[in-house]
């Protein structure tokens, strides 16, 4: 987690200070923007929309809630709520212009962070109910986030560094959620093991 925070801090510093990484980032972003079928890349980018990603997490939260994992469900909701709480102030502070527009507020990529947390948290919530398939759910979460990121860059909605920062933020929140869920589950197993026989 510390490595992710360090990468995020360096990239943010480059954006705020108009550092040397911005030149290559913008050249690469303009080179990639517009590549690929527009409808397909737009569909990819839309996987990070709140209207798409959050309902997926909501289904996993409801499933976990009704299976009795209520604290885990609430932690996942808190992780998702942290995305706009972190991203919106950062967008206002950095005020970075987008690739194909004069509008600002593009750093970091909220769509990337939303996808990472929504799909990652859903995978973590569902993992205990399908142990053999848990790794497949985590791989699917990574692939969905990567697909979102690809669409955002190819459509020219974000610079590559915006997307990298979104990955870092999302991954930190997912790792924090995983640690919280492990603590909850180990607490349950410890409590169960400590019960006296009736």
What would you note in describing this structure?
Helices cover 76% and strands 0% of the residues. α1 (2-17) runs antiparallel to α8 (160-193), α3 packs across α7 and α6 runs antiparallel to α7. It has helices spanning 2-17, 22-32, 38-46, 50-66, 70-94, 110-126, 134-154, 160-193. The chain is mostly helical and 198 residues long.
Per-chain topology:
Elements (H helix, E strand, L loop, with lengths): L1 H16 L4 H11 L5 H9 L3 H17 L3 H25 L15 H17 L7 H21 L5 H34 L5
Helix pairs in contact: 1-8, 3-7, 4-5, 4-6, 5-6, 5-8, 6-7, 6-8
Radius of gyration: 19 Å
Strand content: under 5%
DSSP helical segment count: 8
Instruction: Tell me the number of strands.
Output: 0
* Shape annotation: globular
Terminal CA distance reads 43 Å
N-to-C order of helices and strands: HHHHHHHH
Mean of residue pLDDT?
91
Residues in helices, as a percent range:
over 70%
- The chain-level structural class is mainly alpha
Largest sheet: none
Contiguous runs where pLDDT drops below 50 for at least 5 residues: 192-198
Quaternary structure: single chain
């Amino acid at each position: 987690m510390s490595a992710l925070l360090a990468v995020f801090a360096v990239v943010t510093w480059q954006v705020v200070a108009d550092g040397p990484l911005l030149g290559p980032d913008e050249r690469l972003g303009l080179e990639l923007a517009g590549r690929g079928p527009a409808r397909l890349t737009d569909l990819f980018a839309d996987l990070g929309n709140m209207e798409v990603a959050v309902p997926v997490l909501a289904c996993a939260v409801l499933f976990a809630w009704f299976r009795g994992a209520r604290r885990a469900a609430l932690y996942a909701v808190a992780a998702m709520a942290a995305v706009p709480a972190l991203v919106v102030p950062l967008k206002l502070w950095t005020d970075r212009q987008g690739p194909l527009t004069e509008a600002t507020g593009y750093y970091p990529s909220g769509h990337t962070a939303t996808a990472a947390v929504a799909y990652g948290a859903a995978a973590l919530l569902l993992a205990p109910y399908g142990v053999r398939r848990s790794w497949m759910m985590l791989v699917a979460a990574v692939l969905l986030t990567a697909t979102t990121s690809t669409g955002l860059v190819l459509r020219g909605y974000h610079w590559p560094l915006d997307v990298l920062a979104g990955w870092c933020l999302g991954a930190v929140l997912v790792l924090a959620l995983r640690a919280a869920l492990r603590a909850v589950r180990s607490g349950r197993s410890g409590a169960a093991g400590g019960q006296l026989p009736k």
